[in-house]
Structure formats: structure tokens, C-alpha cells
């Protein structure tokens, strides 16, 4: 069972969580619980680091930001004990949860689960702070923002759990962010592949890496709400959204429990920034000269367009990077201006990426063209396009994000009937 930040925000909410955990244990299950820091706490801690030292050392940043989850894991253990349950917390270094050394974006390598399993078998509810781990040189690491989802899936895989229930502040995975589109529909099931793609293009209900790990390890994941009343159905009845394999999805469709959909979901991402390099030489090697230094600095480039060549053998190159890496990317490119040979760098952080995802696209034409038409009918200009087998993304002006998501939700027939 994993509980996110909103579910853990304050002692009153932690008591609700403890009741949900107690009810699950009362069904005769051995339970491990992974918790997030209280909502807003990690942001607060990140700001302290920035204030202390704008060029902070990621290893010390991890020491600071991992503390939010230490607090909530202890508080949940205390609350469970107050309800008469046996409960024990296990910090990342105590298990330990081994990760690679990449501070602030570490990846779980393995979990020593023996002590954990022994404690669960002895009837204790194990409470584990999400987001944190331990590097080979015994320093605290964190798994990147939203990383408690990945902690939960990793723990579930390590203890061979029957299911990993991700409790959050919405009751499942919707066709789009239900906070933006009131008519978004809850999905009974979504395939791993679609969820992976949706998460990677901005549907933050699950951290992308958690979905990849669940897919690789075959962990059964359910997304459901922790804001439930007394008479709510138990998690075992699967009231939320199940992440399923393609085969399971086919079965659900055959049984008439799911409709075969062309588009499963729409996501948006406002965290990218656009860079345009003007008058780059139009010859072999020019683009490699731009992207090699960015790759060497671990800056992820997402959308790329090389505009049609101008005269005199020159062209403009446009691409996106995470907003948080924009200043670094700009500095790196400026340093190599001579080598790359461009005229100007133009940057823009006021962009958004809107993506439409669905496995149905593999076998159906026309999904892209209806996207472009629906946006143009509302006067929304497309600045760049990128696609994968099951996804189409467009870059637009940030101010038009909500409008674009709503328009596409309607255009693909996803609006819930009231
Ligand atoms: P937690 O703190 O529990 O980890 P998050 O805030 O990380 O919760 O994720 C839950 C949020 O994800 C929801 O409140 C919702 O606004 C957002 N969200 C974005 N896309 C979707 C979607 N397709 N379905 C459900 N929720 C979504
Ligand atoms: N507390 C961390 C964050 O806010 C991890 C998480 O909640 O998943 O990013
Ligand atoms: Mg989250």
C-alpha cells in the first residue's frame, strides 16, 4: 500500500490512512506501507536547499529532501500503534534500499527484504518512507520527484506482493487530468505500455519509472483513492484503476468490461522549454555538434525540428529541454558557439506539450490529422510535433494548455456522459 502526499498531509489524514491500513491487515493480509512526505513538504525542503546554496551539491540536497518521508513514516507507525496495531518503520538505509549513486535521480538496484519479511511474518505492519535509498558509498539518495511510487513498486517486487495499491487523491487513472477536464472518465484498466507513455508525457498520477519497473517485474498495480467513506468497497474488490498487460486488456474487452478505445488518454506537460538556434550550417555533423554536449551533461532533449534550409546552406534548429535545465543548456551552447556555428539562441519557457496516447493508433490512421484539425478549429497554433507508435505530441503556447486538453478530449469522444 502506498499513500501520497495529500493523503499524508497532517495527523488527521494520517489517522484515515492508518484506518485503511488496519482494515487491510484485518482481512488477514501481511502489509507493507510506503509513504510520501506531507503535501508541499518536499517543495519546502527543495527551496531551503536553493536558499542555502543555489549551486547545491545533490548529495546534500538528498540529505535534506529525504527527511520529509522520515517524518511521515514515523508518524504512521505511531498512529497505527495508537490504533492497537503492531507497526515498525524501516528507513531506506535500514533495509537497505540500494540505489545507484546519481543523487536526486537515483534508481533502485535491489532491496534487502529479509528483515522486512521477517517483521511482517511476525505480525508487524512495515512502514517504509518512499523516495529514499542508499548508495554504494553509504550516502542517502532520492529517486526523483514523485519517486515514492517507484519505492512502492520496488518494495512490492522485492517481497513478491500480491498487489501494489497506490492510494492517491483521485480514485483512479482518468482519460485526462480530472482537475482540468470535469468530464474526464475513470478507466477500469490501462495497459502498462499506455500508462508508461502517459506518465512520461506528463500524467503525474504515477511516476514514469514506477510503471516501467512494474512492467518489468510483473507487479500488479492498482491506483485508487485514500479519500473514502466508511462503506467504501475494499481495495480487494478493485475499485480503482488496474494497470494490466495487453493480454488482460484483451480479456476485459472480450468480457465487455472495457471498450476498445482508439485514444486512452491525453496528458500535458508545462515543464519543458524551447530553444531555437538560428542559422546553423546545413551540413553533416552540425546537429551532432549541438546535441553531444547536451547529452554529455545529462540534459534530455525531447522534441527536435530542423527547419527547412535557408539559402546559403543554413538552417534553424528547434528543440525542447526540461525547464530546470534551460540555463545550463543555454550556457553549454553559448560556450560552443564557434564549433556549432549558429547566429542566435532564442529561448521560450512559455510552452506546453500536449500528448494523445492510445495503443489503437498502431492499427488506425487519422488520429494525428483529427488532432491537428481540432486544434486549428480553435485557433491553437502548433509549434512542433513528435510521435511514437502509440503517441502524438504537439508543442503549443502554454496559455492554451487547458483549452487544448478540453478540445481534444471532446474531439476523441472521451467526455463522460452526465
Ligand atoms: P500523490 O501525492 O498521491 O503521489 P500526485 O499529485 O503525484 O499524487 O498524483 C495525483 C494527481 O495526478 C491527481 O490529483 C491529478 O490531478 C493528477 N493527474 C494527472 N493526470 C491524471 C490522470 N490521467 N488521471 C488521474 N489523475 C491525473
Ligand atoms: N515527496 C517526494 C516528492 O514530492 C516523493 C513523492 O511524493 O513521491 O516528489
Ligand atoms: Mg505522486
UniProtKB/TrEMBL annotation:
Pathway in which the depicted protein is active: Amino-acid biosynthesis; L-methionine biosynthesis via de novo pathway; L-homoserine from L-aspartate: step 1/3; Amino-acid biosynthesis; L-threonine biosynthesis; L-threonine from L-aspartate: step 1/5; Amino-acid biosynthesis; L-lysine biosynthesis via DAP pathway; (S)-tetrahydrodipicolinate from L-aspartate: step 1/4
UniProt cross-references to InterPro entries, sorted A to Z: AceGlu_kinase-like_sf (IPR036393), ACT-like_dom_sf (IPR045865), ACT_Aspartokinase (IPR054352), ACT_dom (IPR002912), AKii-LysC-BS (IPR041740), Asp/Glu/Uridylate_kinase (IPR001048), Asp_kin_monofn (IPR005260), Asp_kinase (IPR001341)
Keywords: Amino-acid biosynthesis, ATP-binding, Kinase, Lysine biosynthesis, Nucleotide-binding, Transferase
GO function term, MF aspect, one: ATP binding
GO biological process, one term: threonine biosynthetic process
EC number of this enzyme: 2.7.2.4
Enzyme class: transferase
Residue ranges of every copy of the ACT domain listed in the record: 275-359
Pfam families, alphabetized: AA_kinase, ACT, ACT_9
GO cellular component, as recorded: cytosol
Binding positions for substrate per the UniProt entry: 42, 69
Reaction catalysis annotation: L-aspartate + ATP = 4-phospho-L-aspartate + ADP
Residues the record lists as binding ATP: 2-5, 168-169, 174, 179, 204-205
NCBIfam families named in the record: asp_kinases, PRK06635.1-2, PRK06635.1-4
Entry's family note: Belongs to the aspartokinase family.
Protein name: Aspartokinase
Source organism of the structure: Erythrobacter dokdonensis DSW-74
Amino acid at each position: 500500500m502506498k499513500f501520497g502526499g495529500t493523503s499524508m498531509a497532517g495527523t488527521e489524514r494520517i489517522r484515515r490512512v492508518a484506518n485503511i491500513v488496519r482494515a487491510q491487515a484485518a482481512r488477514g493480509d501481511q502489509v507493507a506501507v510506503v509513504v510520501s512526505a506531507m503535501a508541499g513538504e518536499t517543495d519546502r525542503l527543495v527551496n531551503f536547499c536553493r536558499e542555502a546554496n543555489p549551486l547545491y551539491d545533490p548529495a546534500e540536497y538528498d540529505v535534506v529532501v529525504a527527511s520529509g518521508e522520515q517524518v511521515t513514516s514515523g508518524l504512521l507507525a505511531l498512529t497505527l500503534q495508537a490504533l492497537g496495531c503492531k507497526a515498525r518503520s524501516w528507513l531506506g538505509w535500514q533495509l537497505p534500499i540500494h540505489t545507484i549513486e546519481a543523487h536526486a535521480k537515483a534508481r533502485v538496484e535491489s532491496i534487502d527484504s529479509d528483515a522486512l519479511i521477517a517483521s511482517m511474518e511476525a505480525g508487524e505492519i512495515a512502514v517504509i518512507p518512499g523516495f529514499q535509498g542508499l548508495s554504494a558509498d553509504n550516502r542517502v539518495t532520492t529517486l526523483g520527484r514523485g519517486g515514492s511510487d517507484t519505492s512502492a513498486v520496488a518494495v512490492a517486487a522485492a517481497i513478491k506482493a500480491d498487489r501494489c495499491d497506490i492510494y492517491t487523491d483521485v480514485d483512479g487513472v482518468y482519460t485526462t487530468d480530472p482537475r482540468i477536464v470535469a468530464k474526464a472518465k475513470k478507466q477500469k484498466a490501462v495497459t502498462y505500455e499506455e500508462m508508461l507513455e502517459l506518465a512520461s508525457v506528463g500524467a503525474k498520477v504515477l511516476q514514469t519509472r514506477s510503471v516501467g519497473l512494474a512492467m518489468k517485474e510483473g507487479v500488479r498495480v492498482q491506483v485508487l483513492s485514500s479519500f473514502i467513506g466508511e462503506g467504501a468497497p475494499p481495495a480487494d474488490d478493485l475499485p480503482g484503476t488496474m494497470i494490466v498487460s495487453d493480454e488482460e486488456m484483451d480479456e476485459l474487452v472480450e468480457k465487455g468490461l472495457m471498450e476498445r478505445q482508439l485514444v486512452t488518454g491525453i496528458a500535458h506537460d508545462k515543464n519543458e522549454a524551447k530553444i531555437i538556434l538560428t542559422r546553423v550550417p546545413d551540413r553533416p555533423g552540425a546537429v551532432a555538434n549541438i546535441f553531444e554536449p547536451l547529452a554529455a551533461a545529462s540534459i534530455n532533449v525531447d522534441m527536435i525540428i530542423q527547419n527547412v534550409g535557408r539559402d546559403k546552406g543554413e538552417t534553424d534548429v528547434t528543440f525542447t529541454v526540461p525547464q530546470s535545465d534551460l540555463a545550463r543548456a543555454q550556457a553549454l551552447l553559448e560556450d560552443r558557439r564557434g564549433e556549432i556555428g549558429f547566429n542566435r539562441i532564442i529561448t521560450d519557457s512559455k510552452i506546453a506539450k500536449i500528448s494523445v496516447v492510445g495503443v489503437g493508433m498502431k492499427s488506425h490512421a487519422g488520429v494525428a490529422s483529427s488532432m491537428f484539425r481540432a486544434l486549428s478549429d480553435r485557433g491553437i497554433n502548433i509549434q512542433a510535433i513528435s510521435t511514437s507508435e502509440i503517441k502524438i505530441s504537439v508543442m503549443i503556447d502554454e496559455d492554451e494548455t487547458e483549452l487544448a486538453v478540453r478540445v481534444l478530449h471532446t474531439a476523441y469522444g472521451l467526455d463522460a456522459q452526465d
